[in-house]
Each structure stands twice: as structure tokens, then as C-alpha cells.
């Protein structure tokens, strides 16, 4: 049909402009076809991507390996991931060295003590299996060496950093600034240390970075949207399915994938969905939602998932609710638990003084449920605020310092931590230490407001892309805060690492958006003041020409 041919031509023209034109500066010379212009620019764009990627990866590898590899030591959570069926691996620990907390052990080998329990469902198994394949390729000892995992994570992180910077349609110097800021964030010790650790967090952190990078390509031409969906879809898989605490990330990520891929016309909302870009985004979001739902069903119905949540609720009750404050007995009564259990305040499930030692424990065991915690929080808003404030203060610590980062042969004392790159940590520690929610909530609101303002204004093309990224990462930060703050109980700083990363990424882009919009507003004011002067000059010239008897030129 003629109308279909017209729409197709417009879509192709939009694709050529989005995929080929340099941001804000591209001018099509007269007589040059857009397709030919695109073919000339694509090699330059690819070279720019490869150059930034090579520099980012090289610096990350140096940061990881020189002078000795670093990673976060096991805090007893590692066997849940590494020792289950499928991997069935334990670390090779030198005789006499402590297995947990003090040193990182990179070499893993099969163990007869492993393989009897079900595998822990996490997307981290994918990079771990790739690392097992790469271990002999790199000539590393062991069946699986976490150094191979760290190298793989450096590659994934560099793809995210590079794609994020080059995807924003801005000038080269601005792209380099964004790449540098993103690199400093992901290379910070608060995030980077887990890359070669036996945890699920590496998948969560690199996944969030890939999601952020993919969002800036959505809503353009077909090729750009496909590339963005590949990045954001794979990142969403890694982040959402890394562990049960990150399942809520499916909500902001899936919504952003769909909304950012809609056609940018001013027509009806229903018409914006009638593009192949929108259809592809809906398909990717649906796959992520189904996977998240399946994980949630496993988590809530299997004995393993139920036991894990039971342990977390016990920790939550006696670490964050009944923790020595004046209302401990009233809180226990509201939870339906014996008031005599106030003596267990400050303990956790595996503590030798835990509530598990109480003869009444089995009678009240069913009370330790997520539903009971949620009911208590909703009926005690004051306690909800105080618990959230305590968690936010833990998040403000920003990095974990209780777990050693070096292997035993590195020459460092047990429990020593590295600080090769800690710029973001240093900046956060400049804030008053007990701000907590007084810092996080206003920050999230301001970043969201900047993004919404950028969407409402007709600014530069990258403003929309950056605004969608800021809104998505702000949403991810908020939903990633809730499970560790209100349903975990211990290791709060480590469990909130995803929230901190999403907040940091959103902060960088919101600052860039605010600065760009302010500069654009100043330029518009200068242009507005210059226009009357130009009109007065033109009028004065016209009057002189009239006196010279040349009215036709006026």
C-alpha cells in the first residue's frame, strides 16, 4: 500500500540519521546522500568504540592484576553458589590458612563434599561456566580459577562503559568524560572487588551497567534499537536473576525497555506501539518478566527458598527490629512472638546465642515469615522509617571492609583490603556519616525531576536518552533498596551494592543533563538579547538606504 511505503521510507530515513549522524554536529552536505554519509562515518564510529573499549579494558586489567590479583574473600555465602550441583567446587586452601573472611582463594577444584545440594539458581552461573572454560585457556591452575572470572567481568564492564559513552549523541570530549566517570564508578573498590569473588553480585553489577548502556540506544532506528535491546536484555538477565533480592529490578527495567523504545511522534499512544522497535522491546521485556516470575515461584515454593527466607527473617527481627531499643517488647508482641525473646536482640540465625536455642522456637517458627515482617512495617510506619534510616546509613559506608581482598601469597596481613581505585568511595565518605535517607530520598527526587524536565523540553537528542537512563537507574536504586533494608537483616552494606551502583550511574547522567540544559538556556537567552540589536541595526541601515534613494532594498 502507498501509505506503508511512505512509512517504511520515513523509518529508514530515521534509522540512517540515528545510526550514522554524529551528535549535535552532523551536517549533510548538499548533494550527498544520507546512506553514503552513513557508510563513511560508520568506520569512524567503530574505531571510536574500539579505542575507548581498549583503553577501558586495559586499565581495568591493570587495576585487577597489578601488582597482584584482588577479589573479595568468602563470608560463608560462597559454598551456596560454588558447591552446589553443576559446579561442585571448593576453594583450594593452603594448610593452616583461614578459609573465610581473611583471604581470597582464586583456585577452585572438585570436592567430594560438594555436589549433593541443588544448584543455587542465579545468572552468575553463566559467567562462572565461561570462566571454567577460560581457566585452562589462560593457563591458570584449578578447574575454575576466579582470575578468569575477573578478566571476563572486566571485559563485560568495558563493553558497558564504552557502549554507554558512545551511545550518547554528544561531542567526543563529552563522551570521553562520560566514559571516564563510568569507569571510575565500576572500577571503584566498592564494586570492583566482587568481580573475582564467589558471590552473585558480579552478575548484578555488570548487568546494571549493561542495562544503562542499552537504554540510550532505544527508540531510534532499527539497528540502534536492536543493539540496545541486546545490551539491556542481557544486562537485565544478569541483574534481575542474580539473586532473589534483585527480582524487583524487573519492574523498572521492563518498563523502561518498552517506554524508551516507543516511536517519538506526537501521535496517539496506541500508534507509538505499532513499530517493530516497540514490538521487539515488548518481546524482550516479556522474556525477562517470565524469567523473573519463574524465579520468584521457585523462591517461594521450594524448601531451599523458604528456608533461606526464614533465616533472613530471623536475622531481620533480631538485628534490625529487636535490637536493644526501648520498644523491643512491644515490637515482639506486635510480631506475635514471646516478649521474653528480647534477650536475643542483636543476635543472628547462626549465632551460638541465637533464638534457635530457645525451647519455644519450634512453636513460633511459622511467625518468621516475610508476610509477618511486611505487616509489622505497614502498621508501624515509625519503625519503618527508623529501620530504613539504619539501612541507608549502612549503604553510606559504601564498601565492605570486613572481607580481605588479597590471596595468602600476596604478602599482605589477613583481612587486608585494597584501595587502588576508590574515588567514588572517597567522595561519598565526605558526606556527613549519618545522613542516610536524608541524603538518598532528596537525591532520588532531584535526579528524577531533572530527567522528567529533560523529557518535557525539546533539547538536544541525547537528552531523551540520558533522561530515560536516569529514570531507570533511579527506579532500580529504589527497588534494590527495599529487600536488603527490610527483609535481609545482616550484611546490609554488601547487599546494597546494587543500589549504590544504580544511584551513582543515575547521578552522573543527571549532572550531565542539568549542565547541558543550563548551558542551552544561557545560549537561548544570549540569542534572545542579540535579536533586538540585529533588528535595530537592520532598521537603521534601511533608513540610510532610503535617504540614498534606494528604497527597493528595504
Short account of what is shown:
The protein is built from 22 helices and 3 strands.
* Elements, N to C (H/E): HHHEEHEHHHHHHHHHHHHHHHHHH
So what's the oligomer here?
A: single chain
State the helix count.
22
**Cα distance, first to last residue?**
50 Å
Reported for the largest beta sheet, the result is: 3 strands, antiparallel
The number of domains is 2
Structure report:
The chain is mainly alpha-helical and 554 residues long. The protein has two domains: 2-24 and 31-70 and 125-301 and 399-522, no CATH class; 305-379. Helices cover 63% and strands 2% of the residues. It contains 22 helices and three strands. The protein has helices spanning 2-20, 34-65, 78-82, 125-137, 146-167, 172-186, 189-192, 201-215, 222-240, 250-260, 269-272, 276-301, 303-321, 328-334, 361-364, 370-379, 381-397, 423-428, 437-456, 461-487, 492-495, 497-547, and strands at residues 89-91, 107-110, 144-145. It has a three-stranded antiparallel sheet. Helix 2 (34-65) runs antiparallel to helix 5 and helix 8 (201-215) runs antiparallel to helix 20 (461-487). The longest helix is centred in the last third of the chain and has 51 residues, at 497-547. It is globular, with a radius of gyration of 28 Å.
Annotation keywords:
mainly alpha; 2 domains; 3 strands; globular
How are the elements arranged and paired?
Layout: H1 2-20, H2 34-65, H3 78-82, E1 89-91, E2 107-110, H4 125-137, E3 144-145, H5 146-167, H6 172-186, H7 189-192, H8 201-215, H9 222-240, H10 250-260, H11 269-272, H12 276-301, H13 303-321, H14 328-334, H15 361-364, H16 370-379, H17 381-397, H18 423-428, H19 437-456, H20 461-487, H21 492-495, H22 497-547
Helix pairs in contact: 1-2, 2-5, 4-5, 5-6, 5-8, 6-22, 8-9, 8-20, 8-22, 9-10, 9-12, 10-12, 10-20, 12-13, 17-20, 19-20, 19-22, 20-22
Amino acid at each position: 500500500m502507498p501509505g506503508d511505503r511512505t512509512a517504511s521510507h520515513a523509518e529508514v530515513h530515521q534509522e540512517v540519521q540515528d545510526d550514522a549522524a554524529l551528535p549535535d554536529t552532523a551536517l549533510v552536505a548538499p548533494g550527498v546522500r544520507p546512506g553514503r554519509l552513513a557508510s563513511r562515518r560508520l568506520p569512524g564510529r567503530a574505531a571510536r568504540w574500539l579505542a575507548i573499549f581498549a583503553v577501558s579494558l586495559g586499565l581495568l586489567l591493570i587495576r585487577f592484576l597489578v601488582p597482584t590479583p584482588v577479589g573479595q574473600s568468602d563470608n560463608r555465602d560462597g559454598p551456596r553458589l560454588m558447591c552446589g550441583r553443576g559446579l561442585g567446587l571448593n576453594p583450594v586452601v593452603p594448610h593452616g590458612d583461614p578459609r573465610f573472611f581473611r583471604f581470597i582463594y582464586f583456585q577452585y577444584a572438585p570436592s567430594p563434599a560438594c555436589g549433593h545440594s541443588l544448584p543455587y539458581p542465579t545468572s552468575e552461573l553463566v559467567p562462572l561456566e565461561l570462566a571454567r572454560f577460560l581457566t585452562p585457556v589462560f593457563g591458570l591452575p584449578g578447574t575454575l580459577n576466579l582470575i578468569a572470572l575477573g578478566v571476563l567481568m572486566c571485559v563485560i564492564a568495558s563493553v558497558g562503559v564504552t557502549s554507554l559513552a558512545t551511545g550518547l549523541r554528544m561531542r567526543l570530549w563529552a563522551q570521553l568524560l562520560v566514559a571516564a566517570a563510568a569507569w571510575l564508578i565500576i572500577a571503584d573498590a566498592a564494586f570492583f572487588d566482587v568481580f573475582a569473588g564467589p558471590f552473585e553480585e558480579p552478575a548484578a553489577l555488570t548487568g546494571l551497567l549493561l542495562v544503562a548502556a542499552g537504554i540510550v540506544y532505544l527508540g531510534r532506528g532499527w539497528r540502534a534499537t536492536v543493539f540496545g535491546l541486546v545490551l539491556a536484555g542481557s544486562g537485565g538477565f544478569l541483574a534481575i536473576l542474580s539473586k532473589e533480592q534483585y527480582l524487583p529490578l524487573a519492574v523498572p527495567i521492563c518498563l523502561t525497555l518498552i517506554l524508551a523504545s516507543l516511536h517519538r511522534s506526537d501521535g496517539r499512544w496506541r500508534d507509538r506501539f505499532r513499530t517493530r522497535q516497540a514490538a521487539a522491546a515488548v518481546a524482550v521485556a516479556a522474556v525477562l518478566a517470565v524469567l523473573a516470575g519463574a524465579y520468584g515461584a521457585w523462591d517461594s515454593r521450594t524448601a531451599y527458598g523458604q528456608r533461606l527466607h526464614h533465616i533472613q527473617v530471623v536475622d531481620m527481627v533480631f538485628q534490625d527490629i529487636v535490637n536493644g531499643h526501648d520498644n523491643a517488647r512491644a515490637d515482639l508482641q506486635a510480631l506475635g512472638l514471646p516478649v521474653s525473646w528480647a534477650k536475643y536482640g542483636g543476635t543472628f540465625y547462626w549465632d551460638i546465642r541465637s533464638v534457635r536455642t530457645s525451647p519455644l522456637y519450634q512453636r513460633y517458627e511459622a511467625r518468621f515469615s516475610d508476610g509477618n515482617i511486611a505487616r509489622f512495617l505497614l502498621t508501624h510506619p515509625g519503625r519503618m522509617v527508623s529501620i530504613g534510616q539504619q539501612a541507608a546509613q549502612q549503604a553510606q559506608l559504601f564498601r565492605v571492609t570486613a572481607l580481605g581482598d588479597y590471596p595468602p601469597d600476596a604478602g599482605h596481613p589477613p583481612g587486608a583490603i585494597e584501595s587502588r581505585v576508590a574515588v567514588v568511595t572517597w567522595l561519598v565518605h565526605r558526606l556527613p556519616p549519618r545522613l542516610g535517607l536524608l541524603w538518598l530520598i532528596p537525591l532520588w527526587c532531584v535526579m528524577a525531576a531533572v530527567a522528567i524536565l529533560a523529557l518535557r523540553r525539546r533539547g538536544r537528542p541525547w537528552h531523551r536518552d540520558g533522561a530515560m537512563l536516569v529514570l531507570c537507574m533511579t527506579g532500580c536504586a529504589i527497588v534494590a533498596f527495599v529487600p536488603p533494608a527490610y527483609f535481609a537483616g545482616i550484611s546490609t552494606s554488601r547487599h546494597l551494592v546494587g543500589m549504590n551502583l544504580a544511584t551513582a550511574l543515575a547521578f552522573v547522567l543527571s549532572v550531565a543533563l542539568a549542565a547541558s540544559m543550563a548551558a542551552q538556556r544561557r545560549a537561548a537567552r544570549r540569542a534572545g538579547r542579540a535579536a533586538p540589536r540585529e533588528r535595530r541595526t537592520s532598521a537603521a541601515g534601511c533608513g540610510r538606504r532610503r535617504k540614498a534613494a534606494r528604497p527597493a532594498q528595504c
